């Protein structure tokens, strides 16, 4: 009797706390739920109503390693997973949570798994190992003959030199390390562009099942065209599933993803960001109602609409404190910088190289041009520089050592070179080139949506920016923006409210 | 037949002007491009043998003029109508065709600050896209030197060719791919890579097949001999021609 009522009490307290959802949990994800983070609160909206987690394939350990999709896509972390939450989880479970599974939750599956150091990339940078066959095996089954060879220059994790699964292994694959991406607001992520891919000048890819054009903005390298293909791959890979996802499981997963909207909803003092529907670009409801595929790098209808009511304390709610009003003004200024402050964008493949001039005097929103998410509305792989030497994030002033593997890519003389680095490129992640096999794609990473940033540090696909200020600092250095301290703060406040 | 080509030529206004212009002094050269900031739009210049030329200004992917790129040399082909006419401090070349040379040249890095009085002219209006007439029999696409990249403008022509082919249901479609030579003002002759012929052809073939034109109907003809090399009009040889036969 005592035991069972204790179990009952435990299950109640468990029910309350959805900050880490374990696989097979007997909880309900409500229609609307908020989660605190260091910038305020994040809001998750299940447009189809409350979600029963029990028996739901996104939440059940349907593979063989005890993980569920939710292990790495936690609602409290805007459907990604933050380093803060991972570290907490490590302490609570002594590293036994299935999220740390050897296959990709450690630097190398062959390292002693009980050691924290074997999971350093996950615990310090939030990175999972992504093993990709090399040469590539793309979704559409059309074989790709790579234009470049890959040598391992430095292999701190040992994964790329492994005799079984390393680059020269029996089943050659390359291991790169990447952050999980937000699973939500998917109608924007998946929205297709016109028939031609403006960046490559070739036909856009189509879904083999429906024949419809796909958006190519999912995953850091756009390797999956559809959510279904992605889910099947995650089942075999991350979940180490040995059989198959049934069609009904596939549908349940994709349906769940498609009804989920998320965005930051409250300011650092706990007040709602949106009042009387203003600013119209913030909050999960706006995400649900927004139009998809709007090119918004202009002053007609900007990326996150307008912040007019926040430009002036007079037009804000009387109940807000001075500090709160100042915060809102700072966000509005940050939006202005993001939209309109020009700087020289240089040496970025698929932006400068597509007829737009190198350098190009434009703004953040030139690349982050899609309304509501700030993803590129064209297929968004771009070599911003985060992974390629010398603009990579791994630069430290005094040493060039990196925790990540370094590869030397050598392109064939007959291939078009990387437009700004030539035919020999040092990189920590060749990105899109691992799928396309193209020399010019080396280091191109698909930008992801800006929503829920506050809940899911660190940033960039390689988890190199510990916080939003480090993201802004990267741009300041990379493009010599000469941002004043106040401008940097404004940008950070702006990004934190999305 | 003629009609098709004419319509194409006027597809993009600069090309249209170019195709019909014989006035002015023809210049062709390779140089490092130079970008000069300005209050309006950054302008693009190039210096050759001590003379600075104005090429055009920054725009968008819908603009007729695609500017050069630092870290690459630019091939300039065009006409000087009036050596006194300058923009942003350079003699205006108009009409103009430029190509970004694909290989790196890390020496090309000059970025100049804005200077009072050095402004580009008003931007050239975006080219207008009239659909091709449904009985067009021939479509032509021109490329940058040593490039098979189909820009927004070029994919529109390709898209139109497929649209028209679907209406006409031709018995045979021929894709003719060419490469060109370019004679520079100093007498040097540049020749496009042989591989361009195949790459241009293959890309267009993939577009047609990808847009559901039956493979069996398409005949690809690769013209390996580099054409031109005479100066004026050399840019017209870096081309691909699509012909529809009843």
Structural topology:
The complex is a heterodimer of chains A (498) and B (246).
Chain A: H1 2-16, E1 28-29, E2 32-37, E3 40-46, E4 51-52, H2 83-93, H3 102-105, H4 120-125, E5 128-133, E6 148-154, E7 173-178, H5 186-189, H6 227-236, H7 247-258, E8 260-266, H8 284-289, H9 322-340, E9 343-345, E10 360-362, H10 364-367, E11 381-382, E12 406-411, E13 424-427, H11 433-436, E14 445-446, H12 468-478, H13 485-496
Antiparallel strand pairs in A: 1-4, 2-3, 3-8, 5-7, 6-12, 9-10, 11-14, 12-13
Helix pairs in contact in A: 6-7, 9-13, 12-13
Chain B: H1 2-9, H2 13-20, E1 25-31, E2 33-36, E3 43-48, E4 51-57, E5 74-80, E6 86-87, E7 90-92, E8 96-100, E9 111-112, E10 138-142, H3 152-168, E11 172-183, E12 189-191, H4 195-210, E13 218-228, E14 239-245
Parallel strand pairs in B: 2-9, 4-7, 11-13
Antiparallel strand pairs in B: 1-5, 2-3, 3-4, 5-8, 6-7, 10-14, 11-12, 11-14
Structural features, described:
- The complex is a heterodimer of chains A (498) and B (246).
- In chain A, 24% of the residues lie in helices and 13% in strands.
- With 498 residues, chain A is an alpha+beta fold.
- Chain A folds into two domains: 209 residues, no CATH class; 204 residues, no CATH class.
- A three-stranded antiparallel beta sheet of chain A has the order 2-3-8.
- In chain A, a hairpin with a 2-residue loop joins β2 and β3.
- Chain A is globular and about 65 Å long.
- In chain B, 20% of the residues lie in helices and 33% in strands.
- Chain B is built from four helices and 14 strands.
- With 246 residues, chain B is α+β, with helices and mostly antiparallel strands.
- In chain B, strands 6-7-4-3-2-9 form a six-stranded mixed beta sheet, with no helix packed on it.
- At the A-B interface, loops of A face α3 and α4 of B.
């Amino acid at each position: 009797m005592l035991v069972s009522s204790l179990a009952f009490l435990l299950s109640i307290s468990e029910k309350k706390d959805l900050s880490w959802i374990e696989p097979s949990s007997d909880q309900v994800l409500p229609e609307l739920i908020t989660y605190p983070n260091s910038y305020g609160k994040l809001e998750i909206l299940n447009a189809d109503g409350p979600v029963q987690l029990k028996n739901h394939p996104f939440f059940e350990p349907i593979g063989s390693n005890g993980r569920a999709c939710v292990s790495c896509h936690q609602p409290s972390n805007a459907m990604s997973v933050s380093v803060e939450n991972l570290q907490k989880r490590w302490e609570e479970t002594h590293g036994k949570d299935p999220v740390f599974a050897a296959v990709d939750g450690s630097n190398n599956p062959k390292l002693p798994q009980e050691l924290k150091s074997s999971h350093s990339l996950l615990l310090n940078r939030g990175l999972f190992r992504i093993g990709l066959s090399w040469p590539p095996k793309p979704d559409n089954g059309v074989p790709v003959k790579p234009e470049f060879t890959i040598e391992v220059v430095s292999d701190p994790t040992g994964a790329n030199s492994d005799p079984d699964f390393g680059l020269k292994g029996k089943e050659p694959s390359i291991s790169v390390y990447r952050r999980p991406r937000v699973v939500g607001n998917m109608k924007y992520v998946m929205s297709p562009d016109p028939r031609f891919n403006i960046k490559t000048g070739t036909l856009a890819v189509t879904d083999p099942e429906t024949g419809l054009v796909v958006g190519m903005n999912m995953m850091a390298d756009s390797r999956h065209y559809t959510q279904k293909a992605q889910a099947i791959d995650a089942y075999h890979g991350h979940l180490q599933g040995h059989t198959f996802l049934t069609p009904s499981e596939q549908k349940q997963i994709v349906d769940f993803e498609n009804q989920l909207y998320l965005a930051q909803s409250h300011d650092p003092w706990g007040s709602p960001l949106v009042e009387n529907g203003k600013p119209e670009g913030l909050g999960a409801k706006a995400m649900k109602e927004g139009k998809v595929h709007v090119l918004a790098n202009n002053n007609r209808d900007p990326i996150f609409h307008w912040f007019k009511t926040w430009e002036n304390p007079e037009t804000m709610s009387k109940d807000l404190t001075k500090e709160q009003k100042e915060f809102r003004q700072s966000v509005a200024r940050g939006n202005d910088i993001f939209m309109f402050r020009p700087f020289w964008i240089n040496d970025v493949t698929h932006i400068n190289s597509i007829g737009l001039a190198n350098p190009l005097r434009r703004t953040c929103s030139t690349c982050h041009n899609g309304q509501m998410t700030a993803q590129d509305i064209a297929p968004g792989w771009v070599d911003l520089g985060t992974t390629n030497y010398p603009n990579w994030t791994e630069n430290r002033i005094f040493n060039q050592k990196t925790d990540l593997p370094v590869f030397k890519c050598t392109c064939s003389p007959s291939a078009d070179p990387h437009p700004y680095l030539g035919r020999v490129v040092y990189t920590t992640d060749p990105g899109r080139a691992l799928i396309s096999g193209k020399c010019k794609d080396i280091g191109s990473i698909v930008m992801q949506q800006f929503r829920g940033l506050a809940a899911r540090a660190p940033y960039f696909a390689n988890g190199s920016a510990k916080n939003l200020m480090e993201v802004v600092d990267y741009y300041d250095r990379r493009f010599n923006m000469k941002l004043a301290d106040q401008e940097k703060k404004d940008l950070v406040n702006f990004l934190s409210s999305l | 037949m003629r009609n098709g080509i004419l319509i194409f030529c006027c597809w993009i206004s600069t090309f249209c002007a170019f195709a019909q212009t014989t006035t002015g002094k023809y210049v062709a050269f390779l140089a490092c491009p130079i970008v000069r900031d300005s209050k309006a739009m950054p302008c693009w210049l190039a210096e050759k043998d001590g003379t600075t030329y104005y090429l055009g200004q920054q725009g968008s992917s819908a603009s007729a003029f695609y500017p050069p790129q630092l870290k690459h040399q630019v091939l300039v082909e065009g006409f000087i109508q009036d050596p006194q006419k300058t923009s942003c401090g350079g003699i205006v070349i108009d009409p103009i065709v430029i190509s970004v040379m694909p290989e790196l040249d890390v020496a090309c890095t000059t970025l100049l600050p804005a200077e009072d009085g050095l402004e580009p002219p008003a931007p050239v209006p975006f080219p207008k896209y009239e659909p091709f007439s449904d009985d067009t029999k021939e479509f032509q696409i021109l490329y940058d030197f040593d490039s098979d990249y189909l820009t927004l403008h070029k994919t529109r022509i390709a898209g139109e060719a497929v649209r028209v082919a679907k209406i006409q249901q031709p018995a045979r479609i021929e894709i003719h791919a060419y490469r060109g030579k370019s004679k520079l003002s100093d007498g040097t002759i540049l020749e496009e890579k042989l591989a361009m012929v195949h790459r241009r052809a293959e890309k267009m073939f993939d577009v047609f097949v990808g847009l559901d034109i039956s493979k069996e109907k398409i005949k690809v003809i690769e013209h390996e001999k580099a054409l031109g090399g005479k100066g004026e009009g050399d840019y017209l040889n870096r081309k691909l021609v699509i012909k529809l036969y009843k």
